[in-house]
Predict the 3D structure of the following.
Amino acid sequence: MSLVIIFFLGFILAVVIGQKLKINCGFVAIALGFVITWLFGGENSTSNAFIKAFPVTLFWNYTIPVIFYAFASANGTMQLLGRKIAYKFRETRWALPFAIAIVAAVVAAAGAGTMNTAIVGPLAWGMSIAAGVSPLVVPFALWSGSFMGSFLPWTSNGSLHVGMYGQYLEGIDPMAMCMRSAMFNLVMGIVVLGVVYFINKAWKLNDNGAEDFMHEPEPFSKEQKNTMIIILCCIALLLIPSIINQFAPNAVCKWMSKNLSMPVTATAGISLVAVLGGNDIKKVFSKDVNWNMIFMIAGMGMYCTLANTLGVVDTLGQAMQSLPAFLIAPCFALLGSALSFVTSAATVQPLMMSMIPALAQVFRSAHWLSR
């Protein structure tokens, strides 16, 4: 049990040090991981053993799509897409909360992921105030739309989840698991927004709402059109073979489904968008790619492999054996929730995901625990 305490203390310490000193907690976690490996790693107490724990699959699945969509955002494609959709709702102000959710979902699904709130948020608040819509509904509209579109497998967040499923959950189809999760988020987002809309009676507008509260957005530029075409082609290469293979299995679609993952198509997309999207490559890499998040996820994911080295998973599994069966999943969820209070979900998810296989072996319920 002492090693379990050391493991979680190291996790929390990495987060606290990172926040207090304003440095990337992923690098702090790697440094602490080396120290813990040397002191408590046993047969694996070497630097090379810990270096081999770098989450290659997770890193690849998250980094490449993030770079790809950074190019799409840098030339204003994502922002203009959101404004065009919102403009379509200018004459039905009562439906504006749903328009905000749709805009957030589409921008997220087009590749922005959860970063869509930074793109859509300012637009949403301005539209709501001008149209006389209750501002209490806006955060829920943004949140619901974000959940509906952010975790599809071709987005940066969805690709991150696919990478985690592939890294930590052997024997589970990462793409199918990601789609199940995305469908759950879709239903949850619709239900939450609908409930909040009716509770707040959001169809009742303030009298100061102007009828014509938006200016028509400018048309897409040639570079932005090229960017949208490239994004749609990447999504099509990911989805169409999988869909065809479900109804008419064949060798070509099977090969494409297995090999043309989002990181592969995004790699080609990066080159095409860099050439045809009118971006300054050096500027995009220096200002638009979220390197801080990339290395935070990679570093924390690397640290989380110590859960196996230190026997944390086995210890927790044995402890949970004493719990009634109906409390196991809630306790697992509460552990993740508690950790989320001190750090972001991006750092907690690799930790929780790494525990599932061993816990699933104990309880023989892999599919149940991974929901």
